[in-house]
Amino acid sequence: MAGSGENLTTGEYIGHHLQNLTFGQHPDGSWGFAHSAAEAAAMGFWAVHVDTLFWALALGLIFFFLFRKVARAANSGVPTRFQSAIEAIVEFVDSSVRDSFHGTSKLIAPLALTLFVWIFFMNFMDLIPVDWLPWVASQAGISHQKVVPTTDVNATMGMAITVFFLIIIYSIRFKGVGGFLSELVMNPLNPKELGMPKLFWPFVMAFNFILELVSLLAKPVSLGLRLFGNLYAGELIFILIALIFTAGSAWFAAGLSSVFGDHIPAWFWIAASVAIMATLWLNLKDKISTKATLWLLLAEMLLVGGLAFLGGQLMHFGWAAFHLLVITLQAFIFMMLTIVYLSMASEHH
Amino acid sequence: MNINATLILQSIAMMIFVWFCMKFIWPPLLKAMDERREKIAEGLAASDMAEKELAKAKVEVDQQINQARDKAGEIVEQANQRHSQILEQAKEDATAERGKQVTAAEAEISQAANQAREQLRSSVASLAVLGASRILEKEVDADTHRELLDKLIAEI
Predict the structure, then answer these.
(1) Could you give the number of structural domains in chain A?
(2) Is the pTM of this model over 0.80?
(3) With contacts defined as CB-CB under 8 Å, which chain A residues touch B22?
(4) Does ipTM come in above 0.90?
(5) Which of A145, A179, B23, B104 could form a disulfide with A137 if both were Cys (CB 3.0 to 4.6 A apart)?
C-alpha cells in the first residue's frame, strides 16, 4: 500500500491515493512539494500537479511518436499491420469528423484525433493496478503519485477550456463578431420576428443572453466534468478493490507480519503479482501444462494471501474489463462532443 | 482536489499536441491513405477493362476459328469436285481407248477370217477337182468344168 512505510487506515489510504503531487509556494513563502492535502490547498491557484502534467506529457509524446513513426513511413504501397491499425483509427476519426462537421477546417480532424488517442491513453493508465506506479515513485522518494491525468479535474477542464476557446474562435470566424453576439442575444426569443415594440427589446435580449450564456458555458463544464467524473469514479473503485485485497487477507497478514513487521510492504504484493503473471506467461509459452499451471496458481494464491487475494484479483479483472469500455467510450464522447460543438459554432441555426 | 495552474499548463500542452498532429501526423497519413485509395481504384478499373478486352478478344478468336472452318470446308468441297472430275475424265478416256482397241481387233479378226476364207475357197476348188478326178478315175479337165466348179466354190 503506497509503500509509505507506516500503517495507514483505510481513510488515509484512499486519501493518499487521491492526492496529487503538488508543487507550489507554501504560505510561509518557500517553494516545494505539498506533503498533505491541506498544504496543497494552502498553495492556492499558483501551484501545479507535477504528476498529472508528467503523465499527460509522457502519454502525449507516446501518441506523437507512435503516430509520427507511421506517418513518416506511410506510403501508398502495401501497409504493415501496425500501419493498418493506426490508419484504422485515423479513418475512424476522419469519418466521425466528416459525418458531423460540414464546414472546411484543417484543424478539426487532427484535433479530434489528438483528443481521442491522447485521452484514451490517459484513461488507460487507470487499468494499471493502483499501487504499482505510486510504489515505484515512493521508492524514488516521491510521496504522492496520481498516474491517471484524467482523474485530475485540472487536466480535463484544461482541455475543455481549450475547446471552449475554439468554440468562440470558430463562432467569430464563421459568423463574425456581430453574428456571434446576435446569436447570444436574439435566441431563443427573437423580438424582431415576434414583432415586439422596440421598448421591450432590451429586456428580451437580456433574458436571451442569460439563457444563451448558460448554454454556452455549460458546454466546456459538462465536457470536462463528464470525463473527470467517470474516470474519478472508476479510479475510486479500483482503490476500493485494492483495499479488499489486503482487508480480505487480514487473517493471513498475521502470519506475514511475523516476517515483515506490522505492515506488509507493497513489493510483496508486486512480487506475488509478478509470480502469477510469470506462471500464466509460461503456460502461454507452452513451457508448463495447463493442469500444472492451475495447481501452481492455487499454491501461489494461498502463499501470498489466501483465496481473498484471488477474489480481489477477479474483482480487479472484472472491473478492469468493464472499465475498458468506459475509458474508450469517454475518449470517444469527448472527441465527438468537441466536433459537435465546433460544428454548431460554425453553422447558423 | 484543487483547481490550480495545472489547468493552464494542460491547456497549453493540448494546444501543442494538436499542433504537432496537424503539422506532422495528419497530412502525411491522409495523403498516403488517399493515394492508396486512388491506386486501388485504378487497379480495379484496369482489371475491369482487361476483363472486357479479354471477352472481346475471345469473340474475335471465335469468329476467326469459324471463318477458318468455313474456308477449310470449302477447300475440301472443291477437292472433292476436282476428284470426281478427274475420275470422270479418266473413265471417258478409258472407254474411248477400249472402243478403239476393240474396233482394231475386230478389223484384224475379220481380215484374218477373210484370208482364211479365201484360202479355203482356193483349196476347196482344188480339193473338189482332186476328189472328182479320183471318183471318175480320170482327169477332169479343169477348164471344161470351170463353170461347174466356180458354181461350187461360190456355194461354199
Answers:
(1) 1
(2) no
(3) 106-107, 110-111
(4) no
(5) A145
